[in-house]
Amino acid sequence: MSTPSGLSRRRFLKTSGALVVGFYVAPRSGLAAMQAPAAPPLPDPNAFLRIGEDESVTVILAHSEMGQGVWTALPMLVAEELGCDWAKVRAEEAPAAPVYAHPAFGMQMTGGSSSTYSELDRYRYAGAVAREMLIQAAAEQWKVDPSACRAEAGFVVSGDKRLSFGKLAAAAQKRTPPATVKLKDPKDWKIAGRPTKRLDSPEKVTGQAQFGMDVRLPGMLTALVARAPIFGGTVKGFRAEKAKAVPGVKAVVQVPSGVAVVGEHFWAAKLGRDALEIDWDPGPGADLDTQRLREEFRAAAGTPGTKAAAAGDVDAALKSAAKTVEAEYEVPYLAHAPMEPLNCTVRIGADGAEVWTGTQFQTMDQTVTAKIAGLKPEQVKIHTMFLGGGFGRRATPTSDFVSEAVQVAKAAGGAAPIKVVWTREDDIHGGYYRPMYVHRLRVGLGADGKPVAWRQTIVGQSILEGTPFAPMMIKNGIDDTSVEGVADSPYVKGTASHLVDLHSPKKTIPVLWLRSVGHSHTAFVMETFVDDLARAAGQEPLEYRRRLLSEHPRHLGVLNLAAEKAGWGRPLSGGRARGLAVHESFGSWMAQVAEVSVVSGRVRVHRVVCAVDCGICVNPAGVRAQVEGAVAFGLSAALHGELTFKDGRVQQSNFHDYPLLRLNEMPEVEVHIVPSSEKAGGIGEPGVPPVAPAVANAIFAATGQRLRRLPFRLA
Amino acid sequence: MKLNVNGKEYEAAAPDDMPLLWVLRDILGLTGTKFGCGMAQCGACTVHVDGQAVRSCVTPAASVQGHAVKTIEGLSAPGLSAIQRAWIEEDVVQCGYCQPGQIMAAAALLAARPHPSDADIDNAMSANLCRCGTYLRIRAAVRRAAELAGRTA
């Protein structure tokens, strides 16, 4: 299919009894590609797969397993090219090292729904190069031409001769890697592209899977940190006597984020923390209040902001429009609330440090740990554990939960490893929320009902401002994560005169990306507003979208598929009504039709039919699981999720007042995948954005109530 | 205190008010039982005491002395239980953190009702949160586990 022009340097590492393949993929464009291929920087010792004498094939993962299924999908890519026995395939997390940098983002990380599509080439090449070396080793032994040999199901075969990969591994590792390898055409795939069950199930159903929370080391102590109850607050002073008197408490130390109580175990540390007496300086955020924020954001939405997208003369076009439609939307701050509360275990030694945690941001964590501990990054070993959910919370540009644990270990001194554990209350109070946003829209329709003027103002904190990502991802004052799904919307771009602008007010509240990032609010706004436009135009919502999206075949493809599978337009019984939404995000297209009933003011979502076009699909079983889960995640936000502030403090604290969707609220979900040979897109996130608008549109169809705030509160 | 966990007797040096969850995890080293909320809201810490599903995060360890405690580690010995096989066949897990609690809740349900109705499943399993949203597959796996157990009985 393609030749590995970017595969310019490879290193092969020897470990006892195992073949290890590693390589460096050079940039394919720009200056580096134009220079002689001689000088890419030598990567650190690295490996993407290991063949054991026991015939096991261990694939080493540059991305973290947080439920999204890289533990299965990346090994499928290797196995496809390697020609091994799938039953012998294992996976393990890579250490933190430059060679494991994300192919597009340049640092070791997991996010942006990119783990599988960004590794489509690198992991397949790893398998293909290893296969060629195994073939060479067998050909030499048999004195035949390598072209007379092939690899299948864990053996190299030539005529009636067969040798297993495990027996060939030692000889193969001495071979010179091939200058080029050819990858299979995806239409010839035997392993990839087929629905494949997860490789991590056995350890996860027996309690053996090791999450960061499960790390146990000799002499390890556990710490809880008392953090400022108001963001930006600081410790004025504290009295530790009562805390130190709690049996099992070993130390009380001040750290930049607060005061840490170190105990023999969680319970001692928790009781110790409860007994701490701290005087806080509340800082500038003491009067933070959701009602005031709302008023401030709404006022800002009525004033011009920084331009994110503009064309034509929108004011003139609005004046001459046949009809105008206006609306205002609001979404709240949200906590990620992964089931595994944050935690991080740190051991600082004389000549290095070790970190055990579930993280999406290894490179950041390594850098930050080194800085605090006074070490070089290569002296910091990061052990990536299973993540008990991430959803973006374990991808903090500040490495907040890792840096804090390093500070605690440093302040406590001594050689004992220390595990910092967050309680659920710490998690809900801990910041790094999806920001609150207000959107104001004014759209003019022409005589044919199509928009002729689109004016939209967005107000909400910038996620990226002040982070290392700012130079790359904030352009001309626009944080792309605040406007994605609007500034690039086909509805907006397809309107001759449009203006999208942005206000990014600065607040003390730490904010962060949450599964689907900006699309988590923009799809809600756009897809409910387009329903309003359809009504204003006197047109049926599906037909109206077809007209507006007539030049967007992948939008149309999923829209039509979802509508067909859902029986759009056919009568429903039992007080049910349908709503639909379509949205592109992370390189994939998703349409959803929700069936909803409203009884005694209570919204019940019965069924969600999803159609997805994610291009080339590596594991259809994983795609289905991700979309099902995304529906649940989207429903949690649409039906329940809301954080509010009063007197500077977050008013919610645990699952009783920050509820998540429960099993009895889970609708039936159908997932239909559009067969495609287009470039692969992401799948972890694209299922989330259409959920809230599809349900909101169904609620409107059922009740006539147009809900423009999340979570839904019926009148 | 003396505890019987998964058929084994343990002597644990722990304060009486220490929740069973933390005795299991931090003293006995049985980390399959998870901490999720600390206030019986999420079910990640579900274990069995004399066959009943309880939230170990709010159960003082001292109160279960003289009773049989079973954790996820004890469910699978020897070999996988029908429930765990069903969980694998239905490809339930995603991040997997809540799943020991889900499986222990399902095991208690199936022990009480070997052929649960859909309503039984919803009632028994709605106290266990899953942030990844694997609920559909949990429902399917409980039904399949009932079938598997029926077949081998």
Using brief descriptors, characterize the structure shown.
heterodimer; A: 715 residues; alpha+beta; Aldehyde Oxidoreductase, domain 4; five-stranded mixed β-sheet; 21 helices; disordered N terminus; B: 153 residues; Ubiquitin-like (UB roll); DNA polymerase, domain 1; 2 domains; 5 strands; globular
Question: How would you explain this protein's 3D organization?
Answer:
Chain A has 715 residues and is α+β, with helices and mostly antiparallel strands. Chain A has three domains: 7-204, Aldehyde oxidase/xanthine dehydrogenase, molybdopterin binding domain (Aldehyde Oxidoreductase, domain 4); 212-283 and 342-421, Aldehyde Oxidoreductase, domain 4 (2-Layer Sandwich), CATH 3.30.365; 290-333 and 433-703, Aldehyde Oxidoreductase, domain 4, CATH 3.30.365. By secondary structure, chain B is α+β, with helices and mostly antiparallel strands. Chain B has two domains: 2-75, Ubiquitin-like (UB roll) (Roll); 82-152, [2Fe-2S]-binding domain (DNA polymerase, domain 1, Orthogonal Bundle), CATH 1.10.150.120. In chain B, 39% of the residues lie in helices and 12% in strands. Chain B contains six helices and five strands; from the N terminus they run E-E-H-E-E-E-H-H-H-H-H. Chain B has helices at 20-27, 72-75, 82-89, 99-112, 118-125, 135-152; strands at 2-5, 8-11, 46-49, 52-55, 68-70. The longest helix of chain B has 18 residues, at 135-152. The model of chain B has no long low-confidence stretch (mean pLDDT 96). The interface between A and B is large, with 63 and 60 residues.
